[in-house]
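Re: the 386-residue chain
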Amino acid sequence: MKLLQRYIFSQAFSPAVLSLSALALLALLTQSLQTLDLIVENRQSAGTFFYITFLALPQLIGIIMPLAVFMAAIYALNRMTNDSELVVAKANGVSPWAMGTPVLRLGVYALILHLIINLFLQPVSFREMRKEILSVKTDIASQMVQAGRFVTPAPNLTVYAREILQDGELRDVLIHDGRDADAKSTHTAKTGRLQRSDSSTSLILYNGSVQTPLADGSLDVIDFETYQLDLSDVVALDNVLRLKSSDKFLHELLRPNPRDYVTPKSRKEMAAEGHARLAAPLWNMALVLVALAFLLRGQHSKLGNARKIAICAITGFVLRLIGFAVASSAEGDTALNPVQYAIPLLVILVCLSYLMHRKRFRFGKKRRQKAYRTASLDADLPGQMI
């Protein structure tokens, strides 16, 4: 028995890993398209792009894991049924519950992993991703200067640098500042460096000159060793890190810090997010049990199980979509938070009771034949009495 259960578990585990990897890659590709716009607009490196995309992976895995395990369970059970492996096991007295236990164990492992991702990995990765995105958006050099090109970060302001070194130093800088129509000037410098503090943003120029046109048409040239050009009105960036509900840990969602400004709307959203993280892992068990209920019980058909698999797949996907809809609706109505737990738990209880029940539900032809035999018996009774 143990050997059979280990075999069934191995047949379900490999498809689960493959389907999870394939779905995660597909979801990661979709997520990377959003990140690509941010990277291109701010002229960041490919390493930054892959790093931000990778940090979104834990949440994507958490979303698709129940569906991946569900698909793996359907595939494994159908393959073993078509190869008559489950039929032989049934003929040797192995109960459906004993054959389903290895697949159910896979669902339990997925539930535990899903819970770890929701409670720990996702908040940690999302906080890091939020910091990285903030650093990209507040990267002054990427917005102000581009090596070898004339950049206009604001009307009547043009900035040029021949080269930008790894440490942020600018080489051969040219700046035309016409923001003040009465005091237009052109700055040239051998080197420069962007500098930012909490209250101001400026460009420090070294070893250059300032050319200012005068009213008589002449040019006033002033040489300098160090010159500071204030750019605070040009680069007005918000460098405060603001965490969203997806970035917070469970205790921060269910019990917000009184010092933080929390509106009634955001409190509802955080409560819905917290309960969703606890309720979502239950779908790993629920969907696995749905697959077991459809594919382990019932008679074996030599024509295949295409119809049964189609109904099973539609049922599982519809149930999961209902779970997503309830979690989304709970952001506006806290009364729906218990429903997030109730739906998967109800599915689990119904499927367990059906798997442990000895009698099978009969549908279709056999049920009609039974009704026909009963009607025939009733029709013969009056003649027998005569």
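The first helix runs from residue 2 to 42.
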